[in-house]
Amino acid sequence: MKILVLNTRLHSIDFDVFEMPEEIKLCKGVIEKVGMDTALVTYKCRGMAEEHMTIQSILDHKAAVDAIIKIITTTEHKIISSPEEIAAVGHRIIHGGEKYFESVLINEEVKKEIQNNFELAPLHNPYNLKGIEEIEQLLPGKPQVAVFDTAFHQTLDEVAYRYPISETIYQRFKIRKYGFHGISHRYAAERVAELLKKPLNKTNVISLHLGQGSSLCAVKNGVSVDTSMGFTPLDGVMMMTRSGTISPGVIFHLLKAGWKTQDIDASLNRESGLFGIAGVSDEMVDNIKEMLAGNKKAKLAIDMFVYRLREYLGSFFFLFKKLDAICFTGGIGENADIIRKMTCVQLDHLGIKLDPAKNKKSNGKETIISNQGSKIKIFVIPRDEKIIIARDTFKLVK
User: Fold this and answer.
1) pLDDT tens readout for residues 28-84
2) What gap in Å lies between CA 217 and CA 229, rounded to an integer?
3) Average pLDDT of 153-172?
4) In angstroms, what CA-CA distances link 18 with 27, 206, 289, 300, 391?
5) What angle do CA 299, 180, 112 make, to 5 degrees?
């Protein structure tokens, strides 16, 4: 069964094609700069010696989805002979609100609920829904599945997800901790359980998803019990351009100083974090280079980033009677060995002991980077949200 997986965003669409249940990836790619004459189309299908890149005029999401279907049905790639071979389409949906705790087949009710959560994820849900609607037009009648980024965290106890605000505000606006990166944390936890050769429901792990957006997740007996992101992806640890958690009073202070809400929003989401402190770049690799070259602001920014990672790591540690592992995933988690080293330094008293040589060699590869004497294992797990979406889609339509 061939499954198409889409992650539709404002200006880009990621796509993958899987042969299920064998879990063979037949094609993967991305269309960037959707809405422009100079959209960049990049893909690599099975049998291709190297990645293929072209620049095309792709002025809207319909044109982007149409281009994807043409790529995967092109006879020279021999992936799919016709669109009829696509059995189903799985979509990454950022926000499922309080309703969805698992993946679901998409119908009008599900689409309405995705729309109801536009205000909770204004940069994501509208475009996630757009991807669904374009598939309805271009592949009418094909089953579609919604895999929610928030669903994995719906297992949080009320004591963990409620904020200490009035019941009236909570009930009216549904202001609570939702958490994000759930698909990534779920994959990491499942993979750690496999590597430890333990049942998932008996595996305890703290997952660190570190990238442009970053979050930690405490997974107890296979389910999420706490996570660092909250009502929005702005909450939690310091990120590349996002502030993470700050005092709510800061917002009131800026409002009194004459700032507009949209300016505060832009500052905290796009002009803060490491970029705000160091003023170098919104890429971790650039900040690391500057730190190693002696840039004091870059060093401060990275020290602050790691400090907050360790702050959450420590607080989550005490949610467990026995922790099996911690794992690093996401672009920074997988590739920045110096960040992993700084995060794990002087944690021997907690049973967390990093092997410096293994850590240095592991970049981008799945591996264990703790030493033999470490009671708690340390893993690097490359993120793979797409396979989770493909698996859930297959289970719901087979």
Assistant:
1) 999 999 999 999 999 999 888 888 999 999 999 999 999 999 999 886 767 888 899
2) 9
3) 97
4) 7, 29, 37, 43, 9
5) 145
Structure tokens belonging to residue 301: 């920014």
Q: Give the N- to C-terminal CA distance of the chain in Å, as an integer.
A: 8
Catalytic residues, by residue number, are 149
Number of H helices, E strands in the chain: 15, 14
- Contact, 184 vs 229, CB < 8 A? no
Q: Measure the CA–CA gap between 129 and 392, rounded to whole angstroms.
A: 18
Alpha carbon of 197 to those of 190, 191, 194: distances in Å? 11, 10, 5
Domains of the chain: 2-148 (3.30.420.40), 199-380 (3.30.420.40)
Instruction: Pinpoint the alpha helices (H) of 246-295.
Output: 249-256, 261-270, 273-278, 284-292
Residue 55: CA count within 13 A, CB half-sphere: 3
Cβ of 141: how many Cβ atoms within 10 Å? 5
User: Which residues lie closer than 8 Å to 282 by C-beta, 6 or more apart?
Assistant: 212, 240, 241, 273, 274, 275
Q: What is the DSSP string of 361-381?
A: H-TTS-EE-B-TT-SBEEEE-
Residues 354 and 340: beta-carbon distance below 8 Å: yes
Read off the tokens for 290.
């500057």
Question: What pLDDT is attached to residue 75?
Answer: 62
Cα–Cα distance for residue pair 137/133, rounded to 1 Å: 6
* Angle made by CA atoms 51, 148, 324, in degrees to the nearest 5: 85
